[in-house]
Amino acid sequence: AVLPPLIGTLVICLLNFSALYSVLLPAHCHGGNCAPHAPEFAASAAQAAVVVAIMVTAAAVVLSLPVKTLVHGLRRSRLARQLCRPVAARENQGYRVVDSDQAIAWCDGLWLPTIYVSRGLLERLPEADLAIVLAHERAHARRYDNLSRLILDWATRLWPRRVRQLLAGDFATAAEQACDAIAAEAHGGAERVAQLIESLGSSAEGNARRRAAHWHAGVVDARLNALRRINARAQPAALAPWVALLSLWLTSSYLLTLAAHSLLEWSGH
């Protein structure tokens, strides 16, 4: 998801600093200059101003959309803090209590995540099960999953809606499975966590749909299957996807640099 802006940034750097890509771009001549060089433009100042204005306007429109999402999230966080005031805020235990009959818990915030637990959940769960829920939410906080989800949303803002939904759903499911595994390792194993997820499944799934419309309805089943399949033990990260991403990044940057140089000079003339 973040490859396009990374590739674009690298291409711009390469195009403007010819020494960086002298080994990538074959030498060609412009008058007495027969070497890799930054693109040469013959456009007038008025034409350049129009192009810059269009680019700035387009960037402002694109950036305004995720900013609205961020503002909405900040308002939701402020409301959650206000709802905690009539009820004891158990700061010393690492979470805040929301006065709600629903059995829900969630992690909110980007840089300094806060864990919220409803009064209904506290009344319903024994201490041992509550410890599992808290371990799961603390794992979200340590992993900065909310921040990652926001970055993913920003990076794919211009993607087709269906593709964005699938990607966001995959991310949400993977994050839940990772936090389940962490909770299971700390509190009694996969089967115990699976039983708790089943007992709270309908509430958690409904809350997931309200908080993130991209989460698909099968998230609970996916979490249970993952717990029972790998017995809640995290697998080592595969090296192949990272190698593939690095190769795609470098290859795309190189090819786009070759194409962009010629295109920019053609459009400038």
Major sheet: arrangement of strands = 3-5-4
Secondary structural class: mainly alpha
Rg of Cα set: 25 Å
Number of strands: 5
Helix-strand pattern: HEEHEEEHHHHHHH
What kind of assembly state do the chains in view correspond to?
Answer: single chain
Q: State the shape.
A: elongated
Helix content: 55-70%
- The residue-averaged pLDDT reads 76
Distance between the first and last residues' Cα: 34 Å
Strand content: 5-15%
Count of helical segments? 9
The low-confidence parts are: 204-217
**Main beta sheet strand tally, sense and closure:** 3 strands, mixed
Q: Can you put this structure into words, describing what you see?
A:
The chain is mainly alpha-helical and 269 residues long. Helices cover 66% and strands 6% of the residues. It contains 9 helices and 5 strands; from the N terminus they run αββαβββααααααα. The protein has helices spanning 3-16, 45-84, 119-124, 127-143, 145-155, 161-186, 190-211, 219-230, 240-268; strands spanning 29-30, 33-34, 96-98, 105-108, 114-118. The strands form 2 sheets. The chain has a 3-stranded mixed sheet with strand order 3-5-4, with helices on both faces. Strands 1-2 form a two-stranded antiparallel sheet. Helix 1 crosses helix 9 (240-268). The radius of gyration is 25 Å and the shape is elongated. The model is unreliable at 204-217 (pLDDT under 50).
Short summary of the structure?
With 269 residues, the chain is mostly helical. It is 66% helix and 6% strand. The strands form two sheets. Strands 3-5-4 form a three-stranded mixed sheet, sandwiched between helices.
